[in-house]
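PROTEIN DESIGN WORKSHEET
SECTION A - STRUCTURE
LENGTH: 91
C-ALPHA CELLS:
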C-alpha cells in the first residue's frame, strides 16, 4: 500500500551513479516515527535493509557486494511505501 504525501522526495541517493559507496539522504514525515529503508536489485531481491528514525538523515552504504546495475530504494512504514527512488552502481 502506498501513502500519498504532497512532497514525495524523502529519499535522495548520491552520487548517482555510485562507485564503491552511496549515501542515501532521507527524511521522514513528522507523523512517521520509525521506518525501514530497503534496497532491491533489479530482479526484486532485497540486498540491504536499514531501520531509520528522526535521529539521523543519511545512510552510508558500502556497495562492494553490489554488481553494476540499477537498484531500487524504498522507505516503508507499517507496510506502507512512503517514498521510492533508484540509483545506479557503476565501476
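SECTION B - SEQUENCE
RESIDUE ASSIGNMENT:
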Amino acid at each position: 500500500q502506498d501513502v500519498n504525501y504532497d512532497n514525495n522526495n524523502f529519499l535522495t541517493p548520491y552520487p548517482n551513479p555510485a562507485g564503491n559507496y552511496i549515501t542515501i539522504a532521507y527524511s521522514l514525515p513528522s507523523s512517521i516515527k520509525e521506518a525501514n529503508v530497503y534496497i532491491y536489485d533489479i530482479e526484486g531481491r532485497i540486498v540491504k535493509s536499514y531501520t531509520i528514525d528522526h535521529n539521523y538523515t543519511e545512510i552510508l552504504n558500502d556497495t562492494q557486494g553490489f554488481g553494476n546495475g540499477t537498484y531500487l530504494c524504498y522507505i516503508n512504514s507499517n507496510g506502507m511505501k512512503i517514498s521510492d527512488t533508484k540509483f545506479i552502481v557503476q565501476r
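SECTION C - NOTES
The domain at 11-89 is CATH 2.60.40.10 (Immunoglobulin-like).
The chain has a mean pLDDT of 91.
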